[in-house]
Amino acid sequence: MANPMFKRLPSQVTLADLETYRAFKAIPDYKPANTDYSFDVVTALFNKLQAALDAELHTQNTYAAARDAAVAIQHEFHAAILGVKNQFKAQYGVDSDQVAALGLKKKSERKSRARVVKEAAEQL
Length: 124
Prior knowledge:
Elements: H1 11-25, H2 39-92, H3 97-101, H4 120-123
């Protein structure tokens, strides 16, 4: 079974936690019996959360920019390869071994279109 600690909390829970933290900051006389829940500890966790969310957003933006650059270069490379194929056809001819070496079919290897024979009854 998957560890639930690695699953993102629903946004409603996170928003409710932030509202609770804002209200928590406004109460100056809070003195918990357990110091793990003191204002300083919770504020430090809030700051860590903000830093982690900022880092995540920055990483997402960096990833999106890298993905867009890779897609643009991919299209540019594809266009260049199509140009290379056309140049091979122009230089060596559409029925050459060099064109076949690129993975293209020779013109002579293509099937000819089947002729449609009309029946004699249709012509009358």
